């Protein structure tokens, strides 16, 4: 993965200490669509599992993630698909 993905992973790890973190660059599937950049790293699929999400609804979990990644979402990342889980959820 590239620099943007590395930054996303580092920020999410620092913010949530996840027990699971899977980040997939899905940019190639969006070639020719809005927000696509040459070289990728504009569209990502994220699966993250962390205790920080326990007892929180889906929207609250997503807000926490977007807050942690506010700089990336304002810049190089056009779209982020999120699956945020608490430990034991599937």
Automatic annotation (TrEMBL):
Lineage top rank: taxon: Bacteria
GO biological process: iron-sulfur cluster assembly
Pfam hit, one: BolA
PANTHER family hit by this protein: BOLA-LIKE PROTEIN 1, PTHR46230
Family designation: Belongs to the BolA/IbaG family.
The protein's name: BolA family transcriptional regulator
The species this protein was found in: Caulobacter radicis
């Amino acid at each position: 993965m590239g620099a943007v993905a590395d930054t996303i992973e580092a920020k999410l790890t620092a913010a949530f200490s996840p027990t699971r973190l899977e980040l997939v660059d899905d940019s190639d599937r969006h070639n020719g669509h809005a927000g696509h950049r040459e070289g990728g790293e504009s569209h990502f699929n994220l699966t993250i599992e962390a205790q920080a999400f326990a007892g929180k609804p889906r929207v609250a979990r997503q807000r926490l993630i977007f807050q942690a990644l506010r700089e990336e979402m304002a810049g190089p990342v056009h779209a982020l698909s999120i699956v945020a889980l608490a430990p034991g959820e599937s």
